[in-house]
Predict the structure of ABC transporter ATP-binding protein.
Amino acid sequence: MKSWINTARLLIGLGWEIGPGLFLLYTVVTMSSFVSPLLFALAVRPLVDGVVSGEHREIVAGGIGVAIALTLVLVAPIGYRWATIRMRERAGFVSERRVLRLAAGAPRIEHFERPDFLDRLQSLRREAPELGDSVTLPFIAPLVVAQLVISTVLLANLEPVLALLPVVGLPALWLSRRAEQLRRRSELDAAPRRRLAQQLFMVSVAPSSAQEIHVASLGDELLREHRRATDDANRIAHAALFRSVLIGAAGWALFPIAYVGALLVVLREAAAGRVTAGDVALAIALAGAVVSAANRILDLAGSVLRIRTAAEHYFWLADQAQYRPGRTPMPDRLTHGIELRDVTFGYGRDDRLALPGTDLFLPAGQTIAIVGENGAGKSTLVKILTGMYRPRSGAVLVDGVDLGALDLTQYRQKVSAGFQDFVRYQLTVGEAVGVGGLEEPPDRVPVALGKAGADFVDELPRGAGTQLGTSWADGVELSGGQWQKLAIARALVRPAPLLMILDEPSASLDPQTEAALFDRLAAEARAGRADGRITLLISHRFSTVRSADLIVVLENGRVTERGTHAELMAAGATYAELYSLQAAGYR
Ligand SMILES: Nc1ncnc2c1ncn2[C@@H]1O[C@H](COP(=O)(O)OP(=O)(O)OP(=O)(O)O)[C@@H](O)[C@H]1O
């Protein structure tokens, strides 16, 4: 029962978000189209009896009722069509926004690693428009049931056996439920193939992959894979659809038989003189109303089951993405530092551990560099430090407080990060830099651009107001290094972060540009030292990391060396070996 109430609340909430006025209008026109058959049936009896007996008052009352019912029958569909079109337009956006909130609004991202989450997300994206279409369901469903009950009671009044008429709906209802279960199972079965097709599509149309695809002539192969995936998905869906239509149709076949039977019963009564002509008209109209209400209930039952499926996906996703925020406020400054204590972590249900019990202390006020081979666990460490993932065991302590107990939103506002896999926001330059600035003062964008060494912005047609991205008519495309400088500026725009993370942010920059950038970042780190700001740098370039206060070497997720450049060189272990190798490469 609770889940039905939650589903009704979800639908009404969606309707309200679409727009209260439109929602109310849509509800009224939909309801009026549903009540008109009953109204017609009730008005037709006095009209017919009045005509037979020549009673004017009955003719007028019945005539007015029939006129209203017919007006509703004629006018309601016009309003219904108009309101439906407007609703669909807006409902699409609103449902999409809800899905987006689930996908992007969650404070952690660990659920994105799980195929079951992605499959449900995909299914919900497909079902979301239907959610929007069904916002009136919580009002319509009880109305139709009431119509069925009233019509049945009136029919039973005329002839008790007619009360059995709605019973034909029961097997049909059961069959339609079976049909929906089939459809729903096929949705989830087809979801992985659909997901593959979508990924192939996204890769094929992304400008960033165009070069690789064309040079290697991968287009045909991708197309073939796409076709295979969509064919598979269609095969699964169509087989289920065919069976579910057959099952549904078997239920529908019962209705005409029942209707004809009801008419015969009434006509027999009329022939025996036990009912009036008005009663016959009423019975014919009521039987029509009962059959139409039962049909509609079947239809609605299908919709209700589909909506329940969509709502179930929605609530499941919301549950997965949910987290209980810690209550401890984030301190304004760090005095001790951030510590990873025996942290273990692996992705998804993977048994391999990217962090197999890692201990690491990042002292407050220092610049720390992490080096290590590909796959050593550096980026994973960053994801744990930013609270994107929870450790399987162990703890992250921020000035001694477990990160899980801290208010994660406040914590994130004190974290600033630049990544190797940065986002290329197709906004104006100023917007693309200011997007993470927490309503930064306007002068922070040019200052951040300056610190990131993004001098090229002055040369752009409209400076910081230039639109980025080739999908816009006046959009400008940047080089990989230029995009990266904007991403670095974005990391620098946030005022006074306590943890500044730079995860290979300069991979697309040449060594000189990178060295100049790190001189500026070091100055920035010194400026934040009084607040205990930690600057964490991940880089494969040893020339860059050597000036850090502390260098940490990570191997297979474990810290194997730590110290200053001089200390690690003197130790003559992995760091010294790799540094010497790289230095020799530059000579
Ligand atoms: N999203 C993911 N899903 C599953 N496994 C992952 C994921 N990301 C990383 N891994 C695995 O975790 C391990 C550590 O990867 P991580 O990206 O942290 O290494 P890294 O040191 O940052 O490497 P690189 O220098 O190449 O960026 C690797 O074995 C990798 O295969």
About this structure: The pocket of adenosine-5'-triphosphate is lined by residues 113, 347, 350, 354, 372, 374-380 (CB under 6 Å).
